[in-house]
Specification:
Helix content is about 60%, strand content about 0%.
């Protein structure tokens, strides 16, 4: 079983369109330069993906192979790759992930999987607000960037959030779900 944002064929009711490098809109050579405001929005989105990936990996360092953290951490890496290719297309420098293995992120990993899922739920809800209220308005003049941001936001809302809610309940009930075979 996989999520991969496979149009409802993934985990736990995922309905998002694919957001990986193969399925992202083709960026090509931009027709207009990226404004400072739009660049900051892309960098903020990238930092948010980086932070999520680092947090999920921190949880995995405490609970190896814990679902749904392992596959969603991979998903966050794919999302970061899409944003990186976007920065490359505009000739902007891509910063490294400052959050991976940072003491702050490692300390933030909760002591139980139920608590980790609850923290992830809060982060995914915050992620949608970030895109809706802050990032999308800043890139309104860039339809390809807006399309990518909307796909990333949908992935959080329609794939990651339902998965974390499902597993939070299972972990609270001490009934962890397992990944079914394909």
């Amino acid at each position: 079983m996989r999520c991969g944002h496979s149009g409802g064929q993934g985990w736990w009711g995922c309905k998002a369109a694919s957001v990986n490098a193969e399925c992202a809109p083709k960026i090509g050579a931009p027709e207009t330069p990226l404004s400072a405001e739009a660049l900051q929005a892309v960098l903020r989105a990238l930092d948010d993906e980086y932070r999520a990936q680092a947090f999920y990996r921190a949880v995995l360092s405490k609970f190896p192979y814990a679902l749904p953290f392992a596959p969603i951490a991979e998903s966050e890496a794919r999302h970061a790759a899409v944003l990186t290719s976007l920065l490359d297309a505009y000739g902007a420098k891509t910063p490294p992930n400052p959050h991976l293995d940072s003491p702050e992120i490692l300390r933030s990993a909760p002591d139980t999987l139920a608590e980790a899922c609850e923290a992830a739920i809060e982060d995914e809800i915050r992620n949608e607000r970030l895109y809706t209220e802050d990032l999308l308005p800043r890139v309104a003049a860039y339809p390809v960037i807006a399309q990518i941001f909307e796909a990333l936001m949908r992935a959080s809302r329609e794939c990651h959030l339902p998965a974390f809610r499902c597993f939070a309940e299972a972990y609270r009930m001490n009934r962890p779900l397992t990944q079914a075979s394909e």
